[in-house]
Design brief:
Monomer. Helix 3 packs parallel to helix 4, helix 7 runs parallel beside helix 9 and helix 9 runs parallel beside helix 10. The protein folds into two domains: 222 residues, UDP-n-acetylglucosamine1-carboxyvinyl-transferase, Chain (Alpha-beta prism); 202 residues, Enolpyruvate transferase domain (UDP-n-acetylglucosamine1-carboxyvinyl-transferase, Chain), CATH 3.65.10.10. The protein has twelve helices and 24 strands. With 453 residues, the chain is α/β, with parallel strands linked by helices. It starts with 14 loop residues before the first strand and ends with a strand. Strands 22-23-1-24 form a four-stranded mixed sheet, covered by helices on one side. The structure holds shikimate-3-phosphate and phosphoenolpyruvate. The site of shikimate-3-phosphate has 10 residues, from helix 5. Phosphoenolpyruvate binds next to helix 3.
Length: 453
């Protein structure tokens, strides 16, 4: 099986989704969690010994991380579908890469690897695709300069970025200016090679997979809850020991079939083995507030993370107001939540979405555009998104959506077209491969009508 990332080379792949005449039905699994998959490969590369990973997401973003870890000297091998092993060099012993590291479309890969490289005495250059090269990197390079690493990038700190790591990193005490698990993780990863304690204060709690995995590999990490936020402390220079990892299904990917089921009348689907880390489940809370028929069965802990099976049935939805404090726990789910809101009764407001402007695309603008080109009434007010729902009546559809190299915009638009009056077309579905390989096939298996445009 060829696992090299491809999006950069492939021609645009337009797709159309058409309103079906039959409900969606079935029992499925979604691919492994992207955040946990990146971290599993990185921690495996930083640890002593052999880490075995089950359920790894084989999406292009994660394959970029696998390639980068190989270029830094780790032995990364696929044993079977979702089964990978990584033999690490031991903390602090990564090698200088011989060529530029291409992180493709992945912000998580680029920012976390900056943290890893910053505290190794090596030189490296990072680049990415057109989307990633437009995304801000100063949010990691500014604090990481404080440990003694040096960075030179394009205007605004954008990729390509040259990094000169330091052999003697100073431990940081840093308060995050934005709620970002990527920035928190970059600082903690850099702190692994610093003598003493690295402290990251986050004003809003963000996903804690890095903290969980640090402990799983033997590091000492403490977390103190402070209001909506947390203070994370890492003791530097731990021995990281290889540990097996079981990756749960990605709740951010599950969001797409979930919303599809909710908006296609008569549908009922079960999604098995979805990660339910409480810092990732803001969408489920919000959908329950909208009156969605969404229940969790068989809740259990697997590989240190809570997981469960989701049972979803179509039904009427009410408008919702999502508070700013909930944004980090569902930051990637707003485009598809906006699709659900388009079918609800009443006007929904999602507050405080400024971070959506710096994702793979400006998702605030792209989400509003994907709705309005399909006849949904929507406004952006400051950093809020306001959506006037149709009250269950199918919105017009018939639009061609620009996806701007953004997988989540592409999948959200395709979900919308399953419930609109006329089909919805996306200009390029190729980027769906970054996080959700075989998305269209999985949806077709449930009865969705998705075809090449
Ligand atoms: O740490 C992570 O794995 C991620 C953090 C989030 O980004 P920010 O840290 O920029 O909010 C999220 O949008 C991204 O998909 C994955
Ligand atoms: C924002 C995302 O990913 P990243 O920042 O890793 O590119 C995402 O997957 O929605």
């Amino acid at each position: 099986m060829d696992h090299s990332p491809k999006t950069a080379q492939t021609a645009a792949q337009p797709l159309t989704s058409r309103p079906g005449t039959t409900p969606l039905a079935g029992q499925i699994r979604v691919p492994g969690d992207k955040s946990i998959s990146h971290r599993a490969l990185m921690f495996g590369a930083l640890a002593d010994g052999e880490t075995r990973i089950t359920g790894l997401l084989e999406g292009e973003d994660v394959l970029r991380t696998a390639d980068a870890m190989r270029a830094l000297g780790a032995d990364v091998t696929q044993l079977g579908a979702g089964q990978w092993h990584v033999r690490g060099q031991g903390r602090g012993r990564l090698q200088e890469p011989k060529d530029v590291l291409d992180m493709g479309n992945s912000g998580t890969a680029a920012r976390l690897i900056c943290g890893i490289l910053a505290s190794h005495p090596i030189f490296a250059v990072l680049t990415g695709d057109g989307s990633l090269r437009s995304r801000p990197m100063k949010r990691v390079t500014d604090p990481l300069s404080g440990i003694g690493a040096r960075f030179a990038g394009r205007a605004g700190g954008r990729l390509p970025l040259a990094i000169e790591g330091t052999a003697t990193p100073t431990p940081l005490v840093y308060r995050l200016p934005v709620a970002s698990a990527q920035v928190k993780s970059a600082i903690l990863l850099a702190g692994l090679n610093a003598e003493g304690e690295t402290v990251v204060e986050e004003p809003e709690a963000t996903r804690d997979h890095t903290e969980n995995m640090l402990r799983h590999f033997g590091a000492t990490v403490s977390v103190e809850v402070q209001g909506h936020g947390r203070v994370v402390r890492l003791v530097g220079k731990p021995r990281l020991t290889a540990a097996d990892i079981v990756v749960p299904g990605d709740p951010s990917s599950a969001a797409f079939p979930i919303i599809a089921v909710l908006i296609v009348p008569g549908s009922a689907v079960t999604i098995d083995n979805v990660g339910l880390n409480p810092l990732r489940t803001g969408l489920f809370t919000t959908l329950q507030e909208m009156g969605a028929d969404l229940t969790v069965a068989n809740e259990r802990i697997e590989g240190g993370e809570p997981v469960g099976d989701l049972i979803i049935r179509a039904g009427a939805l009410q408008a919702v107001e999502v508070p700013r404090s909930r944004v980090p726990s569902m930051v990637d789910e707003f485009p598809v939540l906006a699709v659900a809101a388009a079918f609800a009764s009443g006007t929904s407001r999602f507050r405080g979405l400024s971070e959506l402007r710096v994702k793979e695309s400006d998702r605030l603008t792209a989400t509003a555009a994907l709705l309005s080109v399909n006849g949904v009434s929507v406004e952006i007010e400051g950093d809020d998104l306001v959506i006037h729902g149709s009250g269950g009546k199918p919105p017009a559809g018939g639009g061609k959506v620009e996806t701007h190299m953004d997988h989540r915009i592409a999948m959200s638009a395709l979900v919308l077209g399953l419930g609109t009056a006329a089909p919805v077309t996306v200009d390029d579905a190729a980027f769906i491969e970054t996080s959700f390989p075989h998305f269209a096939d999985l949806m077709r298996g449930l009865g969705a009508d998705i075809v090449s445009a």
